[in-house]
Amino acid sequence: MKKTIVALLALVGTTVATFGQAQVVLANLSGPVDAPIGAGPAGGPFTQNPGAGARAQLYLADSNTPITPATTFLDFAGFEKYLNQVTLTLDGNTGQAVNVQLKAWMTTGPGAGATWEAAQSKGASTVFSVTPTVAPATPPDLVGLTSFNITIVPEPSTIALGVLGAAALLLRRRK
Predict the structure, then answer these.
(1) Using CA atoms, how far apart are residues 21 and 141, in angstroms rounded to an integer?
(2) Neighbours of 76 (CB within 10 A)
(3) What backbone torsions phi and psi does residue 69 show, to the nearest 5 degrees?
(4) What is the pLDDT of residue 61?
(5) 137-159 pLDDT per residue, tens
(6) Which conformational region is residue 82 in: left (phi greater than 0), alpha (psi within -120 to 50 degrees), or beta?
(7) Which of 82, 95, 125, 165 is the most buried (most CB within 10 A)?
(8) Where in the chain are the domains?
(9) Rounded CA Rg of the chain
(10) Exposed/middle/buried for 103, CB within 10 Å: 0-12, 13-18, 19+?
């Protein structure tokens, strides 16, 4: 009987240790964090809201590995620069601090892509550190996250049309 109880306790202890995965909250408007994400031309100010045509994902900065799942932006008036809140589990982490980076990209429009790597219209936060917590503790907010801009890449046809128009003006001026 004692052997059975010892074996059962060892099994329960192993199971609990296996499921001790750390978590963080992916949100750019949560608790002390207020870091809106905008979209606009390279080097320009936030000129538009990313809205429903964009996604964001948290990456482990040291290995450039995405932490799934990605999330979308809230798409109602005034909130398009903020993310839908998602709780992320960091596989293999039991509460150690990690360096992370939030990356966002356009999924519709010029330079769009299905992933951050595939998109041309994209942006990323600075690298910051977060210490995830193990359940049942409340996952931490992304304190240290700063605002950034998704750089919109114009369509190549728009650039070509602009160059053609400028050339036509120059030719007309010469006459």
Answers:
(1) 17
(2) 7
(3) -90, 165
(4) 93
(5) 999 999 999 989 888 877 666 66
(6) beta
(7) 125
(8) 20-165
(9) 23
(10) buried
